[in-house]
Fold this protein.
Amino acid sequence: MRILCFDVGSSSVKFGLYAADASGVSALHEGSRDATGEAGAAAAIAAVRAELGGESVDAIGHRVVFAGPDAPPAIAATPETIRALGAFEPRFPLHLPAQRAFIAAAAAAFAGVPAALCSDTAFHRGLPPVARRYPFPDLPDGAIKRIGFHGLSFDYIFHRDPALRCGRTIVAHLGSGASLCGVRDGRVLETTMGCSVLGGVVMATRPGDLDPGAILELLRRGRSVDDVRAMCYEECGWKGLSGGTSDMRTLLAREAADARARDAVESFVYSCVKAAGATIAVLGGLDTLVFTGGIGEGSAEIRERIADGLAFAAPSRVLVVPTDENAAIARRTRELFASDG
């Protein structure tokens, strides 16, 4: 089966054409494109088709940030399942609008080709109830729970090296969006993001974990819910601390002479060490620490600082493992449609 996979962010898309069968997946072609809004999605799809030439496509796999609290690893893209994603857009404004636009553009361009929606939260479905629950009273419209993200990346890492499921492993997916995941003997016990992509460690433009009182104080000062939402998604994190810079490479280059850049870098490292330390407590120790994601793979300096902060745990292995979320999408898509016969 030849599967075309799309990993759509808020402004760009990574794509890959994969050959997939029961033995695994292999990349035939990979690339990336800018894609903003419906027009940008359609243009990106057209460019991908041109780049692939006459390559045949048997199925399409799409990353979606969230497809429901109990969504399986992949579901068939139908008018009903695509429409259902719209209900989650207010909760995931940075990702879902762009992803839905891209799904629609791909369906128009590849008419008749079956497509799968691969949820980025499915990997964490096995989180223990104590790690999922928030201490809210019963809510009339249902519970709000921790669900975790970057699941496609974690799925790829553990599938690529099944030995990582043995013992106590933390995978740190570090990029503009960042989260850590703790697995002990094959079971996910902890992940740093909660019910949205805003929580956990300090990120490029997102704040990470906050005292709820900070949000209440912003509202008390007259900020609207929409203003606070926009600030939390677009103006916080390293960007807010540094005075406008959200690129970690730039911050590292400036930190020696720029106190605000230094604050941003220190806050990112500190939050990662703190989150990993809590996860180590949940796991009962640490055997293997894995770095992945754009910063996790690309910045030896950040890796060294975080590893130094975790030296007390004495992991036996510290690894850098390149992730491939599209490969995880291809595998999930093949499994879905293979099971359908």
Summary: The domain at 2-123+326-339 is CATH 3.30.420.40 (Nucleotidyltransferase; domain 5). The mean pLDDT is 95.
